[in-house]
Amino acid sequence: MPLVAAGRSLIGSGGGSCALFHRRTPGIEGDANPALRLPIRVSPYHPRLRGAGTPGLFSHPNGRTCLSNDTLIEIDNVTFGYDASRTILSNVSLKFPRGKVTAILGGSGCGKTTLMRLIGGVYAPTSGRVVFDGEVIDTRNKAQLFKLRRRLGMLFQFGALFTDLSVYDNVAFPLREHTDLPEPMIRDIVLMKLNAVGLRGAAGLKISEVSGGMARRIALARAIALDPELIMYDEPFAGLDLISMGVAAKLIRTLNDVTGATSLVVSHDVPECMAISDHVVLLAAGGRIVAQGTPAELMASTDPETRQFVRGEPDGPVKFHFPAPAMGVDFGVAS
Ligand SMILES: Nc1ncnc2c1ncn2[C@@H]1O[C@H](COP(=O)(O)OP(=O)(O)OP(=O)(O)O)[C@@H](O)[C@H]1O
User: What DSSP designation does 243 have?
Assistant: First the structure.
């Protein structure tokens, strides 16, 4: 299910203190291409800047000191329902590691998108806490929410591009909304982000002139325009052909590595997710956590429910048949 389509405020981040790096992006369109020497702004939280794996205390660039730098988001015993009649997530506890790509997999309607909405502060949990970078998200605190959303980039299921704007203006949109940067600088950033997704040459096109796969990449360029620390992808592969899917998957992985951001990917596409993720969470109805671990651990799992899901088996603990009366009852024959 797509997130709030017009959710402008969910696009973008701060990142004012980011360093500027020039770096190759292997694997997107061929390593030999000199155009792939991307000027990309790197999050101040990037392992290269903070000393990867350093145990003990960790100083944030914002001056705060944390006991652990490993977890960016913590879902702490969260229960949530859109209304009192139905609980969507029940006592869910999860930790999303900083700087990693985490895939959230699970059957339709189990609450994956809802979980992202709670992280984005769109809704408040009925009980429990959502903690982002050490701070409990309080949806009543508008100032905190605004600051949080400047640190998030969001890729909606169908791009949610502004169809009346050009490709260029779509990517420029969050920069114009959230910063006072002069137009020449916005131009450089827009072209840089479009270059990162391989679409610098498409800057002048109208949205009606681009394909579905291109639209997804343009939305990605827009989502990273303000160098978010967390990028959330809702069904980034839905409706894409195999080549576009491969490109999108590599982009998610490469952008995560190059910028040092943390990525959450909600998807039904098990092979793509397994190929690009560091950590995988498998959810079932009610937000029950069936399994979590590395892709290799999930693929090797002997748990029947995990096996059925990651191998796409039609029947197993999750039944093919919706609960129904016995055949004999419906067809009037004695069993
Ligand atoms: N705004 C809403 N108001 C009421 N119910 C909602 C709302 N959004 C989602 N739901 C319901 O909450 C449940 C979980 O929805 P959610 O979109 O989080 O599931 P999902 O796991 O992302 O599903 P899918 O993989 O099909 O996108 C579904 O039953 C859905 O119908």
Answer: H
